[in-house]
Amino acid sequence: MLLAMLIHTIVQLSVTAQQNLTPFGIASQSTVYGGTLSNPNNAILPPISNDFDLNICSHTADGSDPSADWWMFQFSFELAYITDITIYYRTEFAYRMDGFKLYVTNTSAIPPNGYLCYEDSDPGLPNITQNIPCYKSGKYVIYYDTTGDEFFGPVVELCYVAINGCPKGMWGPNCTESCSSICIGKQCYPENGSCIWGCDPQRCVNGRCDTHTGTCIDGCVTGWVGQSCICGKCNMCK
Ligand SMILES: *[C@@H]1O[C@H](CO)[C@@H](O)[C@H](O)[C@H]1NC(C)=O
Ligand SMILES: *[C@@H]1O[C@H](CO)[C@@H](O)[C@H](O)[C@H]1NC(C)=O
Ligand SMILES: *[C@@H]1O[C@H](CO)[C@@H](O)[C@H](O)[C@H]1NC(C)=O
Ligand SMILES: *[C@@H]1O[C@H](CO)[C@@H](O)[C@H](O)[C@H]1NC(C)=O
């Protein structure tokens, strides 16, 4: 049991090592404090720290919308396969981060209409630096706050955000490997290249393919390896 838990932990750690995709897209937010200062894109530019300054962090306008404040990142490519998201919030302002939600979505709709990766729960204040595993594909990442500050209502002050994963069709630590053409839709998991929707049945003996697991039930045809035909590895063993 202990060994199983240790292995599980190691596997989880090895997952959180994909490329930061924030150079490939733009950020926006519900409102901008102080005119052109506190630009939402400050949160995707260095420094990577919790130190606050309007020139280096995002900051929504205080109290201008009592119901919700948000920060949104939109990828410049069609679809990202996200593995995890790291947030650096403003030092000493965890109380404004309290109750935040993090979404991955395919639309820019507010309130967010997509997958809820994480919701800060009570009791206690959140850590201002958080790595949040979120294994999901999408076009947008949204930090959403409906609680926040008792005087000003929701306020978003993000100093740095890293969104790790790979663009659709790519995998590997630096997303430099192409997903194998055997994968349906050429879509594979960013960390290991295995097909997400399974293999093309034409690559499998008798065309028998488990579309959920990507396994060739009767094995692979010549040129592809493994009892279970691990699809992402096929392009390395032509
Ligand atoms: C976004 O669209 C892709 C492709 O249709 C789908 O696989 C994915 O689950 C969607 N993501 C969300 C968060 O709905
Ligand atoms: C904050 O960080 C500490 C230490 O890393 C961890 O034990 C705790 O679970 C974290 N709390 C939250 C709410 O993430
Ligand atoms: C990924 O990129 C980094 C920085 O350029 C480099 O040091 C590393 O060797 C690369 N890793 C792989 C597996 O290509
Ligand atoms: C590849 O990663 C996915 C997502 O974590 C996992 O479900 C799948 O089993 C992995 N494939 C292999 C061959 O390890």
Automatic annotation (TrEMBL):
It comes from Mytilus edulis. Keywords: Signal. It comes from the Eukaryota. This is Fucolectin tachylectin-4 pentraxin-1 domain-containing protein. Residues 1-17 form the signal peptide.
